[in-house]
């Protein structure tokens, strides 16, 4: 450990010295291309600063700071040769100018060209980009996109009306009336590759089955619990059995049928409150299967149900079905039971009958999928059945899987030795990663599924948190079966825009859309899932090509034989062509063709479409690499698994740090506390802190020993916070104790939704209220009338977004932002009174230090500060106040590392106002060169002006003014998230939030290549309604793949959070893997120094001082650990 005689081995070069030639070259400014004194140039003080940091580390660790190959003379000799070669190579490539980081701003023309290249690069990567549309397909696509844009625009204007942001049950009627949905319903969608046998047909089929003769019931309908059912000629054994016919007659047919509908669906008008946790909904889900089974396993009902399922799939324009089933024991009225082999025969016979009557239907295949929550003896029996069925029905029974709730079921690793005994000709098609846990046995089923050679992955929801596995799935072309509606209904995701498939759609990833158990949530066989995927998961730019690609993928990744695939693709092409012609014919009378009319081309004439099956067959015939083969022994499997885990953990943030012996002791205690808390969440997900809203668990954290430990931990700096929301509510309360404060409007007795009061300091009563209606009253008098305690508690309640019912209090992102901005507006005249302004800022620094934060880079608008003499202070004077208060604080608290300011005015402005911002920031930088870190724009991104409105002006700014842009603080894709592109091309040093960056593969590539730090603010993102469950935050991916990130807090005062400790805790428990340990926390602290705007010398000093504080913390923590844990 730094400072205690231990070496820290950083794999990344950012702290240990940047001597690699490619890194040097990327940092080379255009003006210095032909100069080879780079290391000594003033433009590269940061590089020299990194050397200084390295020398500082060498001093404290006892290592020599330079070796002979690190001497300046040797480096100058080598760099001259290598840089010349690299320049010669790279300056002759087409993209060289875009790829080189510049210290100067590009011209507007060059900028636009580079932006077009980056946008086009992302467009070319997207799923479906390889599809070429015919003339008429293009016209249909224009109509399709007009419908899509209309729904997106409605949702952008009023987020509560955006269907994919709501629960499926709440918007089902709206979806069914959507013209976009109706068009998708008519569209040929290929096949469904993930569905379960007893949840295929709609609930009305079950209602009709209850009209069959000889059906008996015992018990009554009582909420989620229903009666027992059984078909029998006579009353079944036991008391209480009645014929359903008699019960229906007594109850009334309509009432009885409604009770059946309610019993056999998860649908509920208030799903968010009905199902509090994933276990709640899964308990109901599982109970439905058991209640339903005695009805549907009656042989005549079984055949009727399956036949009706095929009819409904065909009506939904699904031409092929691969379904999973447990092969339950069927029975009839004569007491005969049917074997699994006979059940498969029924499937085959019904399918052939249906195909004879519906020749465009390609058929069905079956995947044997028994329950995973069984002992090894039962599992062995399952495998024997699988092997027998494979031998007898190999062309129909095409795979094996294990099903049931992954979180509570046995993991694949428990069955690996048994599974490896199966013949390699039996395809595995495993459910894996149907969870939002990370680093637990559930999501690590993904590792086992891949190593066992699965052909497809069911759900794969957690795959995005495993970058190594993502690479492996892509390389092996393992198809992921995405089931969007299922994932929401079963409580994995609330807003479809946060579904991890949104990132997979951005590249040509092997995936299909399926429906899982559509009848249990009143969904159509596939159209609802296609609609949700197209509107809510895909980018706003993705079009008909995506839908066609998804349909083709469902045939390509099916387990049909080669000849069957060819026939299916040919049939799909005919159906698709008919759909295009019919749609165009419907539009022809009303829709204008903006292009010259061209003859219609059938899909088989599209480059790449007619050869689809043959390409698929060629890929299938390729001999797999040795490591892609299923391991032949459990020992080999275990070796590969250990290697995977080691490689994956070595790729995570903080894995490059080596802990000292004392740190390892502390780490064991930290991980014990972490795993204890996670175990509570496994037992009862509703108790999982990281799975709940921050407001709901805030009170619990004060008693959490891990949180208290994180509070004491030196956390480095905050790089993203806003000036008037850093200090706690207690500082606001303190402000109300000042003399001469006036108030207009109510503080006490306010109801939710009442307007916020206005405040103003003045020696005499202000002339009138802001709106001319209210009356100004002295706060001192109001305090006396209600009592100080009552008034101050009302202030605390008013200046926070906290509410005990956050999910219902703010219905959408715009609602919470309105309340958020209202607090700023109300608070501003109070805090901008000069004595309060200085007191608040100084008090904020005190609170940061108390939370063991020792550095601050904060953003501010520089609103007009005033005094009782009605003097208005200039921006320069306000910054001087910050400088003076900072200096005063540093004198009193020398352990604090420093303060810097980012001028960040609102993005809601006209061009003239914006020009004034740029003029001001240049003045401020000139006057306060070391205090002013740079420039940003703030405010709700979704509703503010985009960066494209300002780019040409921003390019005129001097290069010595750094950018630290808010960008991607949104869950939209293809709209305000494109600020990320501009932020990067403008040369931003850091990105504020970057929530949507995961949906932009080219942006992610540039972030890593340019080493642009993402400022994560997890609690802010949840409170401001970007994400509901912290485990769905995109930072889980950034942490897993060692992205340059820091954790900050944004506006902690307004959600009653500590300056940084709460965000650190949430990041550690909710964003990071369960395996992430003390190294992650230490790395986040170090990153806050590395990616700060401190000078090289300041960084070197900061690392040395932070290391000393860290070492002291470790020793103090070890002294306070309970003896048993120590």
UniProtKB/TrEMBL annotation:
A Pfam family reported for this protein in Swiss-Prot or TrEMBL: A_deaminase_N
Keyword field: Hydrolase, Metal-binding, Secreted, Signal
EC number: 3.5.4.4
GO cellular component, one term: extracellular space
Domain Adenosine/AMP deaminase N-terminal: 102-184, 630-710
Catalysed reaction equations from the record: adenosine + H2O + H(+) = inosine + NH4(+)
Residue stretches making up the Adenosine deaminase domain: 273-567, 815-1104
Main subcellular location of this protein, as a coarse class: secreted
Cofactor: Zn(2+)
Alphabetized GO MF terms: adenosine deaminase activity; metal ion binding
The UniProt record lists the keyword Cell inner membrane: no
Residues that span the membrane, as ranges: none
Cellular compartment(s): Secreted
Example GO BP: inosine biosynthetic process
Family: Belongs to the metallo-dependent hydrolases superfamily. Adenosine and AMP deaminases family. ADGF subfamily.
NCBIfam families, per database record: adm_rel
Stated name of the protein: Adenosine deaminase
Organism: Anopheles albimanus
Phylogenetic placement of the source organism: Eukaryota, Metazoa, Ecdysozoa, Arthropoda, Hexapoda
